[in-house]
Every structure is written in C-alpha cells, then in structure tokens.
Amino acid sequence: MSDRRPRATWRRQPEQTPAAHGSSPSPTSPPPAEQRRSVTQATLYRDGRHVSSPTTLAETFRQLREHPDGMAWIGLHRPTEKELHSLAAEFDLHELAVEDAMEAHQRPKLERYGDTLFVVLRAARYLDAQEEVDFGELHVFVGPDFVITVRHGAAPDLSAVRRRMEEDPDLLALGPEAVLYAILDAVVDGYAPVVAGVQNDIDEIETEVFGGDPAVSRRIYELSREMVEFQRATRPLVGMLHGLMAGFAKYGTDEELQRYLRDVADHVTHTSERVDGFRQALTEILTVNGTLVTQQQNAEMRALAEAGFEQNEEIKKISSWAAILFAPTLVGTIYGMNFDTMPELHWAAGYPFAILLMAVVCTSLYVIFKKRDWL
Q1: Per residue in 180-230, pLDDT tens?
Q2: How far apart are alpha carbons 49 and 93 in whole angstroms?
Q3: In angstroms, rounded to a whole number, what is the distance separating the alpha carbons of residues 151 and 121?
C-alpha cells in the first residue's frame, strides 16, 4: 500500500481498559434492526480528524464519495451476507476474501488482492472466573481509503484502538496501514494477560499433580487443547509480520510504522515461544501425572493383595479349627442316636474308645494343619 499521508511521529500509547466496541452515535433516525446488530461503528476521517459517524453502510458509502481524500473505518460484528456483499461491491473486495470473512473459522493469514490487504487474526482473552482461554476471530480489509473490520466472537475489542488512534491525529493521518498496525498491536498485546493466566494455571496444576488430585488429568487435557489453539493463533503471525516487513520498501511504508511493526513482531515472537514452552511443559506434566497415578495404582493393588493374603491366612485357620472340631462332633452325633441294636452301646470299653477316637482324630488333624502352616 502506498503512503498517501504526511509523515508523523509514532507514540506508543499505554494499554487501556477495554470498553464496548465503538461508541454509539446519535442518529436522527434509528437504523434498521439488522444493521444495529452488525455495524458497530462506521466513521469517516480526513487528515487524521473525525469527520462524521454515518449510521448506515449506504450513508457511509455516500459520504466517502463526497470526501475522496478521506478514510472510512467500518466495524462489523457478525455481519449478514447482504452487508458483506454490499461492502464487496462498494470497495471491490475479492470474492474469496469475502467468503472467508463470511464463513469465519479461518487460520491467521495475510493475502493481497490488488491494492487491498486481507488479514485474518485470532484474538484471545483469559477468563478468570472459568480459568480458560476464549478465542475470537477478526478479519480486516485494508484498502487505499478504507479499513473494514469483521469480528466473530467477543474478542478483540477494538473500541480502545479507535480511541487511541483518534487521540493521535498525526498517527491516524498515516492512513489505513497505521490502523492495521494498531489493530495488530492490540491483538498481540491481548496475548499478554492470557500468557500470565496460563502460567498461573500451570503452577496450580503442578501443585495438584503432586498433591494427588484425581481431577487434575482433565484440567491438563483441557489446558493442552487451549494451548494448541493458542499456537494456531500465534505461530502464523510471525510469518505474516515478516511478510509485511519485507514489503516496506516496495509499498513505501512510513519509517515510524516500520519501527512499530518490528516491535509488534518481537512481541508475537516472544509470545509464540512462551506458548510452545507451555505446551511442552503440559506434555511433561501429563507424563509425570501418569507415572504418579500408575505408582498409586500399584500401591493400591499391592495393599489389596496383602489384605487378600492376610484374609486367606485367617480363613485357613478358621477352616482348620472347624475341621478339628467337626471330628468329635461327628463321633458324638453317631453315638447319640440311641439305637438299641448298636453294638457299642452295651460295650464296656465303648465310652473310653469314643473319647480316644475323638482325641486321635483331632490330634491328627492338628498335626497335619500345623505341618502345612495353616495354624
């Protein structure tokens, strides 16, 4: 893209607290319900100064034609197919880029269609309450006199970027490429709280792993999946930014914007390396957790085996004594039948013989069980 604006000094602004995307203009007549849902804000700028805030796309197109030296910044959130086709017809957007913006679920990329850049970014934010990472998708069309942002999801919030640019007219006067670089910076800066939140989660997970928390495996798995998504969001950005830097000379990019883009590239490279480290750490933690779980299971199995062995020994003792006591019971039961025809009933040695028989049988069983170590 050619630099059609005067050179200005870039001043990196401190990060502001996000607010609702775009401030609501005060139109004389309310826009249709469909546009109220999708068009979050449409603003015209001229030499870095706010000119107007049209309430509809048609009005935006008309005012931009009336100010050929101006720039339109149109913000959309989950636009309808009709709105995207209207923008494509007005700004001559390539049909493939429009189709990607409509479908969403794209990987980060940068493509050039004539004098229009199409950029896909994956924003991220850390949700403290749920302790999880929420990802959003942003599509940016950058032309000679327009910037169109199409958001799918809650992140990123571009209202702070718009305010920051409007507070620095010299920067905004550099044109659509300055807006693009500011958006890139906002997306990359949004990764910092996510990195901090994930680092805290990993520290907690390590404590839970060595504390034997049974639910930690699920948490490791869920965080690992989030890190895969985070990698998909950050890795392609490194190549995209280097591609933009390679075109500095060809497209006459302002020197301050070049420094700005290099700074953004450094940040995203650092973030990408941190995310790679997080994923490796989670893999190692999962391995350690698996080892600890296996050791715990082995210890439990060993304890069960020992308990079973002890129980078996007790059963042996009980069975042995039951067999010993069963012998005299059997003899006594037979002699307690009181049949007259039993020869032993009238035998003078019958009683001593019965007692001796009980003693012999019991002693024999005791010796046998003792020898087998059942008693």
Answers
A1: 989 999 999 999 999 999 999 999 998 888 887 878 888 888 899 999 999
A2: 26
A3: 10
